[in-house]
Design a protein that fits this description.
Layout: H1 2-8, H2 19-33, E1 37-38, E2 44-45, H3 48-61, H4 63-69, E3 73-74, E4 81-82, E5 99-102, E6 107-111, H5 112-120, E7 129-133, E8 146-150, H6 151-166
Antiparallel strand pairs: 1-2, 3-4, 5-6, 7-8
Helix pairs in contact: 3-4
The structure holds zinc ion (ZN).
């Protein structure tokens, strides 16, 4: 998929001042290049082959992602970049996410999705910014499977999805 890689390459850049825009652009190019998959809640993720190609390219060109990729398995159906995760929730039903540690890459119990964003785009991430996993898989660190939103937005979306799942309220 060389055209896709050529299109996305200029935006895989460690440029903090335009990082958020780059993250959004990589996602929109990825969605446009092949038939995207509609997932829960009306959101879309790229087709799995796009995610395969993106991981392969990033692993080849970025040493931090190259290291991480040795632990990633790609989900065949959705193209999630999955890392081992014992449970999606802890005993108090708080969401859990894979964490990574590697001194060389400045990671010390760093959330895997934040590690990927930092390694590829180097955004300025405050504690108030959350990564909303559009694919709903906590184990996933695919940068095209999420959106950076404020904690408030993320929690509102979570409430909606929970109510939707339990049938308490429709989304319309
Ligand atoms: Zn995913």
């Amino acid at each position: 998929m060389p055209e896709y890689i050529n299109a996305v390459k200029p935006y895989l850049e460690k440029a903090p001042e335009q990082a958020f825009e780059n993250i959004r652009t990589v996602r929109s190019i990825s969605l446009a290049v092949n038939q995207a998959i509609a997932v829960y809640g009306g959101y879309e993720i790229p087709s799995p082959d796009v995610s395969w190609n993106l991981l392969e390219y990033c692993a080849d060109t970025n040493s931090a992602i190259g290291w991480l990729a040795t632990m990633i398995t790609i989900d065949e159906e959705f193209g999630c970049w999955c890392l081992p995760l014992a449970a999606e929730y802890d005993e108090k039903t708080r969401a859990r996410y894979p964490q990574v540690s590697r001194k060389e890459y400045g990671a010390h119990s760093t959330l895997a999705h934040r590690f990927v964003l930092s390694s590829l785009f180097n955004p300025t991430l405050t504690r108030d910014l959350h990564w909303d996993h559009i694919c709903r898989s906590h184990a996933c660190c695919n940068p095209t499977h999420g959106e950076l939103v404020t904690a408030k937005t993320n929690n509102a979306r979570k409430d909606l999805s929970l109510r939707h799942t339990t049938g308490m309220e429709t989304l319309f």
